Amino acid sequence: MSFVAFAMNGLLAVLLVVALAFGWRLERRLKALRDSHEGFAKAVKDLDQAAARAEQGLADLRAATDEAAETLAIRIERAQALAAQLDERISNPPPAPSRAERAPPPVRGRVEDLPPSAERRLKAEDFERLLEREARLPPGARPTLAAPSPTRETPRSRARVDDDLFEGPADSPRPEPNPRTRR
Questions:
Q1: pLDDT tens, residue by residue, 59-103
Q2: What pLDDT is attached to residue 120?
Q3: How far apart are CA 11 and CA 14, in angstroms?
Q4: How far apart (Å, rounded) are the C-alpha atoms in residues 180 and 183?
Q5: How far apart are CA 41 and CA 49, in angstroms?
Q6: Measured in whole angstroms, how far is the alpha carbon of residue 123 from the centre of its chain?
Q7: pTM higher than 0.90 for the full model?
Q8: pLDDT tens, 20-70?
Q9: Distance of alpha carbon 108 from alpha carbon 10, whole angstroms
Q10: How confident is the prediction for the chain on average, in pLDDT?
Q11: Distance, CA of 178 to chain centre
Q12: 137: alpha, beta or left, given left = phi > 0 and alpha = psi -120 to 50?
């Protein structure tokens, strides 16, 4: 064998070793890329599932909000109707019944004497009887809470009062200290 053939074989061996090293490095990088791709695919799948859960949660929240809005609207309508009835009864009290029409006063007993099915809530009839009893009292014997203000009620002022009923508490004019901070 000649020296040139031996040198060419040596050069070829060195080039093959270098190619083998480059191939090995490339394989490691491709493996890392595949692993990161699998991790990325898993992260995308988890993100997709979280988005689906969030969409379902939003749909449930929307349905609950709609239901609460309907319930609140019904309750507001009932409250306004009852307020109108109460205003009408206050402004136009019924005539006082004669002595013959009066019912005997209710017998007052202990709570233990009441049947278990007796309700403790006032009914409309109880409230009407209370208003009638108050109307029969002489003017001097009626309890007064406070002197009514001389201001005249207008539909606009009434609207403000109704709005105040459904708004949250007003913000305080000055900031309050944080109770969690040390003084």
A1: 999 999 999 999 999 999 999 999 999 998 888 877 776 665 666
A2: 56
A3: 5
A4: 9
A5: 12
A6: 30
A7: no
A8: 999 999 999 999 999 999 999 999 999 999 999 999 999 999 999 999 999
A9: 120
A10: 77
A11: 24
A12: beta
**Closest C-alpha to 79, from 162, 158, 155:** 162
Tokens of 127: 């409230």
Backbone angles phi, psi at 29, to 5 degrees: -65, -40
Location of structure tokens 């379902």: 56
Length of the chain: 183
| Single-letter amino acid, residue 142 | R
Count other C-beta atoms under 10 Å from residue 131's C-beta: 15
Q: Residue 122 contacts by C-beta under 8 Å, 6 or more apart in sequence?
A: 130
Spacing of C-alpha 62 from chain mean position: 11
Q: What integer pLDDT is reported at residue 135 of this predicted model?
A: 80
